[in-house]
Amino acid sequence: MEHLLEFEIQTQPSDTSCGPTCLAAVYHYWNDPVSLPELIDDIGQLNAGGTLIVDLGCDALARGFDAVIATYNLQLFDPTWFDASGDMISAAALAEKLRQQRDAKRQRTDLDQHRLQFATTKYLKFLALGGRVRMQPLDDTLIAQTLSTGVPILCGLSATYLYNEARERPHRNDDRHESISDDIAGDPTGHFVILHGYQPADRVVLVADPLHPNPMAPTNKYPASLWRVTSAILLGIVTYDANLLTITPASTGSE
Fold first, then answer.
1. The predicted structure's pLDDT at residue 81
2. How far is CA 19 from CA 12, 45, 106, 123, in A?
3. Cα radius of gyration (the chain)
4. Distance of alpha carbon 25 from alpha carbon 36, whole angstroms
5. How confident is residue 46, by pLDDT bands cut at 50, 70 and 90?
6. How would residue 3 be classed by pLDDT, with cut points 50, 70 and 90?
7. DSSP-based three-state secondary structure for 246
8. Phi and psi (nearest 5°) for 19?
């Protein structure tokens, strides 16, 4: 059965504002609009630019929404921290595991300590605000079931793989974080998009992308093969992405 949500998205105003732009689109979808400049200011960004999906989830929870993150980021979460159905055993138990991991890995020089410590702090806040974290198979069943309930899916993924483009290296232009294509010295780049439709017969998902122009289509919305998008999501682990975020009005609950 085909699932299609009516969904609109703005164009991100900078290289690193895809997260707030996607979040603004989700708020607009739920008829609770928030201005994009306000979201960009409220959410902030990492030292190197950009945001983590948990930042978006925390903002949604603070505004009274429900938020659930399905994670595939094994750099931050261990599969044994979840039960057989993929649910966290409890918020308190997951928070304690995150704190123990943070302390145990604090002195390791082979890790991106800034992202590890920053992400841990944000997830502890997310859990304290009432957010849920799951680890479940990333397949067409998960996508179809979510969309069939009228809920768009905010994805943190690898732009490098989704777009099949060269890796990038950071470049500061005055106060702006920008990226330059560099297949030799560059690194994988993360990105946020929204899934708002699924066509099972063709195994195609419909993507709302804040980047415009983008390598996939002349517009902000386009179809993409399910395998390419799910692969891009899983490869988002390189940049601490590899997550799905669903945001729903508190009265409706969430999947």
1. 98
2. 9, 10, 27, 16
3. 17
4. 9
5. confident
6. confident
7. strand
8. -65, -55
